[in-house]
Amino acid sequence: MTDAEIRRELRLLKSWAIASTLLLVALALYIFRPTRGTAHFGEISAERINIVEPNGNLRMVLSNRPRSIGPVYKGKPFGYAGGSRPGIIFFNDEGTENGGLTFEGSGDINGKYDASTHMSFDQFDQDQVLNLDYSDENGVRRTGISIDDRANVDIHQMVTDRDSIMKIADTVARDAALERWARPRNGVPLEAQRLFIGRGPSRTAVLNLSDPDGRVRIHLAVDSLGAPSLDFLDASGKVVMHLPEKR
Predict the structure, then answer these.
(1) Helix (H, G, I), strand (E, B) or coil at 101
(2) 163-193 per-position pLDDT tens digit
(3) Cis (ω within 30 of 0) for the bond into 244?
(4) CB neighbour burial string for 87-122, b if at least 16 within 10 angstroms, e if fewer
């Protein structure tokens, strides 16, 4: 083969390589192009799916345990790392967590098991105030709905303050600072359960109504044998009226 023929072959190979590269780049751009169209899949297997707003803020995260997300405040992680909350976590318009649904359950070779489900909705820039819970530890079951009050304190600031306190080396000073941190803000407890309706491990159906400090003031129950009762309590927890009256 002459030099001219070799140079011609090299030019053809070079042209083919360039054309092939351009074709592959165009194909990749087409496949991975941003699109707002609708795609249909018969089945999807994924360890985590993020639903995001156009600006990138999270709106919902569906994940397994290892890839589960930790708390997020206005798009930034805080508090603790992920990896412990399999299920669905919801986020508000600002990219701050505002509730979720988590669930787990497992047993061992001896027949012992532990299962739970938790669904909650958070107060704005705070923690959960409406909860649906189920727990079952080897047949000891609790199921209920609760409504809580929370102080109007920014949860990110609360966690930041607590984390700073936990770095205090002096245990006496640290405990005193934690006690001050946990006090009510402007007379409102950081958390106070106001209502609980559910079933306890003794198979008693219960309705508790509590005051703003979280103290039960009305306790309505039907026990496992079907006997009803109604108690009115004072602020110290003493029963001041019981129905039906004892004979």
Answers:
(1) strand
(2) 999 999 999 999 999 999 999 999 999 999 9
(3) yes
(4) bbbbbbeebbbbbbbbeeeeeeeeeeeeeebbbbeb
